[in-house]
Amino acid sequence: MVSDNIETYAIDIQGLVTGFGSKLIHDHLDLQVEKGEILGIVGGSGSGKSVLLRTIIGLQPPYAGEIKILGQPINDLLKRDGKRPWGVMFQNGALFSSLSLLENVETPLLEYSRLPASKIKEIARLKLMMVGLHEDDLQKLPSQISGGMRKRTSLARALALDPPILFLDEPTSGLDPISANLFDQLIVSLQKSLSLTVFMITHDLDSLKTVCDRIGVLVDKKIRVGILKELLQDSHPWIRQYFHGDRARMLHQEQ
Ligand SMILES: Nc1ncnc2c1ncn2[C@@H]1O[C@H](COP(=O)(O)OP(=O)(O)OP(=O)(O)O)[C@@H](O)[C@H]1O
Ligand SMILES: [Mg+2]
What we know:
Blueprint: E1 9-20, E2 23-34, E3 38-43, H1 49-56, E4 64-69, E5 72-73, H2 74-79, E6 86-89, H3 101-112, H4 117-130, H5 147-158, E7 165-169, H6 177-194, E8 197-201, H7 205-210, E9 214-219, E10 222-226, H8 228-232, H9 237-244
Parallel strand pairs: 3-8, 3-9, 6-7, 7-8
Antiparallel strand pairs: 1-2, 1-4, 4-5, 9-10
Helix pairs in contact: 3-4, 3-5, 4-5
Bound molecules: adenosine-5'-triphosphate (ATP) and magnesium ion.
């Protein structure tokens, strides 16, 4: 539950303003993400979900506002060398096409750890096993495996350095419903076993219902956060439309 102690937040955003030129994308947005929760992020196309993610991890400087990760200002974290306390699966997160799956997962370890090559190979192998890939697949190129397996490889790469926070930008988009569901289950089981905090942008209504502890909706350049039950009662027109449209009927059924 929300605590008074700011240090306990995995992500703490106060008064965030972002934009491109004179066009504002976020305008005094506040968001607190608890350690160990899975927060789903929804919002219309172009509402600023990916920009929010990129801003939180320091890839895009904000116009104003304060961002802390595990109590540390993002700018302090970026100034330091070494590994960051997060892993990311970007929207359409491309793997290196000329590298094998194993080499893809080795990349962050080669960059940020000082471990010997044999150890790096072993860790990368274990991460790929952890997300459900098989020994026979490790030397394959991304073009030689299915979309679902590519997503799993991206996830293994995001988790290579054992980060406490995981950012996912539409991780199940492009997957068939069965593969998407398996991927969701993988996220939940990894969250539990690794005590991850997960910030997950998604349009997948199934994921929102079954995976996310809370949901944040980007509307009017700000974010409204609540549990599904609360958002189902929100009277904002976009939120009503999203959570009460035909597609969303399953959200209203009891588990
Ligand atoms: N590098 C950029 N330069 C200029 N405008 C940008 C840039 N990146 C994003 N934008 C604009 O910022 C707004 C928010 O983009 P963002 O990618 O965050 O949307 P989104 O909510 O992730 O949408 P989608 O669901 O389609 O992925 C959009 O209007 C987009 O055109
Ligand atoms: Mg996006």
